[in-house]
Amino acid sequence: MLCNAAVVLLLLPVGQAMAQESLETKLVIQQGGRETGREKFTLRQGRGRGAPGTTLIALARYPATNPQLKLAATLERTSESALAKFQLDVEGPEGTTVILAAGSGARLIVRTVAKGSEAGRELPGGPDVVLLDDAVFSLYTAVADLATSGGKALTAVFPRTSRRASFVARLESGGEAGAKRVTLSGGIDGSLATDAKGRLQRLELADPGLVVTRVPD
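Predicted structure:
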């Protein structure tokens, strides 16, 4: 079923699955002081078929006008913040690729489908693993949810590039009405802030000098 779903999605334009979704939060991505792209996303309570948890849907474009790279992401997590569903559609000059991931205990199953090819791999998983991407930054909201005041050791898996990074997410302040500020150290170095609804407000990554900020409503 996982494979069949991916093949069907390859026949659809990237982002069509979110055509009916209101992507309410907008982000500006800058590197070295220069805007490189834009992202918009929505974070809501609940998952498919009424299951408890959260659903994040995002669309990123690089550059924002006449983009050469478009990414559409869906991340569903359970009420315990465990991975329930991950899908990343990537549309670039070389065509479209669909990446699907699902957790099964201590395993993470990742499947990549492109035109004329398909590959699957099994990676170490578990509750301390978060799925991220170097171009879809609203995914970092999952890191804020897992951060602790004592520092939470996490492993980031980047399914599109197969990169892995071990880092610590330390909750510096709970903020007013649930807003959070988190520092990141180790394989990922920087900081992030979320609002009371858990939505990403700002993300700074020391390497590669990236700053992501929310566009005011």
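Summary: The CA atoms of residues 63 and 116 lie 28 Å apart.
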